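Is this the right way to post structure tokens for a design question? Let me know if I should format differently. Anyway, here goes:
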């Protein structure tokens, strides 16, 4: 199972720690060099920079994606992944900037038969295990 972690900030770093603890192989996809450079070295992960759309042009879509980016990019990142073939997506809250964006994400997920989960309670990381 190919897993991508989208984002390189603090929330993404927390997800990375969980994935490492679960002994899961994954790729980290970030947008810029600044956050990519701050990704913890002890996690032994190189961050691919350029953003999810750029990397989708270079690699096949993952089976599973965890999206932990800024609110303005949550839904668009999920939609790009789903349209590229990703079938399971865990997206950070709130999932989009407004109801219209979340409805669009839902419509696309249904059309492409993708499962999208919103990570509203990260404390126990059960949604990470489920993804």
């Amino acid at each position: 199972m190919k897993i991508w972690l989208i984002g390189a900030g603090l929330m993404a770093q927390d997800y990375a720690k969980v994935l490492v603890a679960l002994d899961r192989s994954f790729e980290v996809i970030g947008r810029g060099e600044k956050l990519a450079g701050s990704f913890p070295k002890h996690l032994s992960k190189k961050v691919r920079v350029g953003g999810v759309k750029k990397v989708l042009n270079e690699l096949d879509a993952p089976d599973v994606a965890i999206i932990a980016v800024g609110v303005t990019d949550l839904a668009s990142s999920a939609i790009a992944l789903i349209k590229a073939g990703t079938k399971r997506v865990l997206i950070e809250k709130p999932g989009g900037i407004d109801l219209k964006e979340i409805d669009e994400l839902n419509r696309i997920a249904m059309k492409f038969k993708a499962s999208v989960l919103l990570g509203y309670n990260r404390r126990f990381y059960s949604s990470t295990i489920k993804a």
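Format looks fine. Someone answered above. Worth noting: The CA atoms of residues 29 and 55 lie 8 Å apart. The radius of gyration is 13 Å.
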